[in-house]
Structure formats: C-alpha cells, structure tokens
Amino acid sequence: MATRGGTWGYRDRFGDAFARTYFRRFGPGVVSSVGLGTYLGDPTDECDRRYRESIVEALESGINLVDTAINYRYQRSERVVGEALDRADVDRRDVVVATKGGFVPFEESRPADPSAYVRSEFLDTGLVDAADLAAGSHAMTPEFLDAMLDRSLSNLGLDTVDCYYVHNPETQLRTGGRAAVYDRLEAAFEGLERRRAAGDIGGYGVATWEAFRVPRDHEAYLSLPEVVSRARAAADSVGADDHGLIAVQLPFNVTMADAVTVEAHRHPTDERDASALEYAQAVGLDVVASATLAQGSLAASIPPAVDAELRGDTPAQRAINFARSAPGVTVALVGTSSPAHVPENVAAGTFEPLGARAFDAVFE
Length: 364
Known about the structure:
- This protein is of the alpha/beta class.
- The protein is 38% helix and 15% strand.
- An 8-stranded parallel beta sheet has the order 3-12-11-8-7-6-5-4. It has a two-stranded antiparallel sheet with strand order 1-2.
- The longest helix is centred in the middle third of the chain and has 20 residues, at 178-197.
- Residues 34-211 form the NADP-dependent oxidoreductase domain.
- InterPro entries: AKR2_Oxidoreductase (IPR053135), NAD(P)_OxRdtase_dom_sf (IPR036812), NADP_OxRdtase_dom (IPR023210).
C-alpha cells in the first residue's frame, strides 16, 4: 500500500524537477498531479509491451499514481500495471494504485459470443444474478465486487490497492430508479468498508462518465451529496469510525468542462447549488480527472482563447495543465500507451498551472 513516508519520500526524490504545486496531498501522503491512465489500446502483446515500457519510465520520472480497471483491455491493463510496478525502480509504498470494478471483464480478448461468455462465467456460476446485471454488462453487488477485487489484486500481483472505484454506477439507472441505485451503492460501500477494514483497499471511490457532471433532470444524473450520505451510512452499518469514500473520478478537459460549469449538487454549507468540483472540494473528496486529452484530440490543438492562458511547450502539456488548474482537481490522468509521449507528459508538471482566479477568468 502507498504510505505517507513512501509517497513523501518519492516527492523528495523527484520534487525539485517539477513546479511547486506538482505534488498534492492524497490520503495520508502525496501524489503527482499527472497520473497514468491505461484505458485505450488494442488487446495485443505489442500494446502490452508499450504500456509496460511507458509505465516503468513514468514511475521512474516523477509520476506516482496509476489508474486502471479490471475491464480495461480485457484485464490486460491491470496485468501490465502489475508487471511495471515489479520492474520499476520504485517502492510499492511510493505509488498510489487505483483500479475499478463494475463491468464484467472478458479474458485477454473479446469472446466470439460475449453474451454466452457472460452467461457461462458470471450468471451460471452465481457471481451475478440476472436481476442485478444492467445493460448485459454491469453489476455492483457486494458479492460481485468482492470477486472482482480479488481478481484485480491477483492481476496486479498486489495485496492492497489504494483506491477501489465503483465503476460507472449510473449504468444501473437503466434497470432501476435513482433510489434503487443509491441503495445498491450503499450496499456496495458496505462491502468495500469491510475490505478496507481487512486491509485489502486503502479507500474507495466512484468513477463516472456522466453522473456527476450533468443536470438533475438528466437520465444519468446521480447526486454527490446523496452518494456521500450513503458512504456515511455504510460506515455506520459496519461500525467504522468514518467512511472510506476518498475520491471521485470524472471527465474534465478544455472541451468537457461540465464538472465546473454545471451546478447540480447542493453545497454542504451554503444552501445553494454547486458544481461537482466545488462540492467535492467542500467535503474533502479528491477528484481525479479522466479524459484529460479527450482521447488524444487535445494533443493537437486547444481552443485558442483558452490556449493563450495556459503554460506548456506543446498543446498536450497545456491541455494537461488546464485540467490540473481546476480548483478541486488532485490528479489529471493521461494515457500511457506510447513510450514516445511519456517525457512530454511528465514535463507538463514542470509548468505551474493557472491560479484559481485566472482559471475562473477562462469561463467569464
């Protein structure tokens, strides 16, 4: 598990090479504000090799947060992360490792008949009940998440992950109303509280695509205050002193800034609506920004009016620094499937992000 001493030691090892605000507090320690994403890429040995090389180089250059999921590249991404952690010249205690559970994972490649695979591997075995499976691919019962966490730990070759996300819980809205989904989330959190008490996870989170950055009347909306309330209830149910909900993950970039502009969550103290980032900051949740480069499109160009305000030698660096500039964002994830891009992405952290006032001015 990442520790206070390990992550601060990592910061001491690399911090002088970066701008002042590059390392930020996360849990008991600190993390780099540029993190490694592992979502994109083909399920091939060659792509595995590129990821492995990229992650090792990044870990040895000043990035100490790696994000993955059991379903990314059919479990290959988790396995490559584990291999890279074993090969890199860093200690496990220095690195924050996050993964996710929720989508049923295939094994190494897409099966010829995905429905038959899901039926034989998950429904017939009793890992998932048909009533709990949304869109034919998503579940978040405690039993399912328990099994997926165990499989993730095996894939990663680790005893503990630092943050375990419930992956895209808004998918469950396709099979039930919000009240039912909140109940399912609370049950999932109870299971994760038990795994936290057992030392299998450092904390847990919710990784979303739409849920927290859309208006209340959107079909995919979930309330962050209600999610936090359910985490508190889950902690109370298992007798924990405090809940282990530590982070949310959502898309945030120059062209997807809804997490700042859409005010759909009741502020905990001001009795007004707040954006997802403002709410998370107010209650002490870390925010991990995904899609920082919009799957590569922002590496080529950024809208000129915003680009002019940002620091960085390349469009990719300026796009990374836009995400890092948002008040409330702890880490901006960048895909690491190409070793050629690692030095450029790491170097983004040598530039100071915008201050809060300058960031707000971008939206005026």
